[in-house]
Amino acid sequence: MKLSRRTVLKSIAATGAAATSPGVFAPAIAQAKPCRLGILAPRTGIAASPGISGLRATEWAVERFNAGGGIAGRKIELVIEEETSPKDTIERFQKLVQQDKVDCVLGIISTGVALALGPVVEESRALTIFWDGTTQDGVEEKLPNARYLFKSTDNECEAVMSSLLAIKHWKGQFKRIAGINPDYSYGRNNMAAFIALLKRFNIEHEVVTEQWPKVGTMELTSNVAALKAAKPDLIFSSLLFADLPVFMKQAAAAELTKGIKLVFPAAGFQHTLMKKDFTPEGMLFGHNTLYFDNPNATPMAKEFVAWYADKQKDYPNWEADRAYFALASYKAAVEAAAKAKGSAWPSNDDVIDAMVGLSVESLGGKGSWRKDHIADQTFVQGFSTHNNKYDFVTLDPARIETMYSADLQKPAGANFWEWLKTAQFKI
Amino acid sequence: MRRAPSVILIVAAVVALGLVPVLAPPFYANLLVPFYGYAIALLGFNLLFGYGGLLSFGHAMFLGLGAYGAAVIAGVWGIKEFEIVLIGAALAGLVVALPLGWLVVRYTGIFFGMLTLAFGMLTHSVLFKFYHLTGGDSGMRVPRMRLLGLEFAAYNKIELMAGPFYYYCLALMLIAAFLMWRIVHSPFGLHLRSLRDNAQKALYLGVRVHQFRLAAFVISAIYGAIGGAILGFRTGLADPELVYWTHSGHLVFMTVLGGFSSFLGPIIGALALTLLQDQLQSYTQYWRFVLGAILALVVIFLPRGLAGLAADVGSFLSSPRRRPGPVQLPEHSQPGVLGPGLRRDDVA
Q1: Are residue A143 and residue A185 in the same domain, yes or no?
Q2: How many CB atoms lie within 10 A of CB A144?
């Protein structure tokens, strides 16, 4: 090709004109750069099962969103780090923010880690959405005015719902109650909430024994023996990690679960391990914000469960919903803020403002964000049945109950125990 | 004269550490703050283990004591001067270590290890169970504190950690290392080594066995509590996992990785493990498996740890015509000796 001085000058002029034209190169550059999302989730240890469920849902959502153009035109790229101890997780978080320069951090299951990480998030001014972690020390909010951090629903939601359902369905059928709950603030608060609600509704009861095994304890025969000796009419348990199926096996072997009422608000965390051999029918069984076999689920949720079963040979637990909800909320907020700004990529502050009050259809149902940056989501519980195609228990389709967390968690700034005494519950 | 290259290396390392906040991305300065906490704690731990021959499996309790001490002094009492917190943490370490040490130093080998493990787990249970005092599993918040009376209000916490607090911790580590160097090279240090190598012989020579071991135990506890206060400030939380036995194992790992027969070995181990863990966690979810394999390889092939390897490489390079002879293992890694202060005869 022959190049003349005129041709070269023309080319330079054309290039310069194109480069300075608004809306030609700048957005193309912005859109070519992927939207980097940092994920903090446990992949080993007792919280590995929910962590992996959340990661798989995130991958599914990213595939789906990227096929539709990503977030406001930018493809999503994940940077995954592990959630472990508070100290190490803070380091991982700082790596995501300072080193990987992610646009948003999502994840966190442990409230212990979340409590330590919350102030660091605020100091870093890095938009962060927790899957399942709160910044409540017990039931007391420690970060009431968070700006950059969005937190999950209160941990006690499922216990409040189970307590209300137990009162609704079994009032007058039990008096002697027993508890076996993990020995940390979650387990203690759940049991205390159950008792507080029994008092609130004037249910005559007597606590015959309370067992507090350490989280992850796999030898629970002494607890089973103590429960059996106490002869309860009802057992309330917030066991939710790998110790739950172990307890159920040992309880079934000791014939503890025969003929008594069982209230297990968080059993859905281990749902595929709750085998029919040792898990009775008719127990009150909580699936938190995602029940994989919900006949009333949306087509999107059914598509996700089918994909999960096909690819992973497993069925998702509620952490999948929490992870999807966090990511879908971020996408919706960015796109709403971008639209308001005429398609330019919004600032963190714009995204945060767009998040507040935002509603998203998540895998388990509707979810939204309160002004105090705490999520509201749809909770599902019901009564176990063996009448299904699986080797584990599911919920009796005729007895599935759904509640929105606006009716299950305290309002912003309220004291949990005072709220339990005065709230208008819809039983 | 033989010390000159070592001194140059140490000065170069200190200069390199001092340049991290200037030259490296802020993430690395942040990452190294816990290293300083561990380095100080391990200087004390190695006085007990490397020089005294007493392997504690519950030493994390002193780090926890420092972190909880910081939470109480700064968070509950509202005294936000970090120097006062350090003094308070050191005093807490002293007060707890005196009666505890009085009991445990009467035992050596596996019995000393088991007793310290038991007291460590007892401390964990107390922190975990006494919700109203300690916050249970949620722990206690450690608020932001002033350094040398300065607020550093213009800095957010991450900037504070990567800047002023980084240099503060570097200075603390240098002071702690200098003091420990004087301790191990004093007659006290010599006595301690004699107890490690042959306690019975030392006793016959008039060494007050229990008193010297108790002094080492108390000093190591004070160092541990100071390290714990740094960790607590850095994380903003004192939680029971700091005291859990796996954290004590972490301290042992760092010391073995760096080399417990060398003064600087534990510091090298703390630095190596901090950086190694950071890289491994980014690459694989099986990072714990890799760390376990590395520990096994170090114990088998590098019984003197990274510091020993560096010394061997240094002597090889300084005498190029001579191939190094067989590596002279420390007394406690030779056949018949299971570990410092623990001979095969002791468990037979």
Answers
A1: no
A2: 13
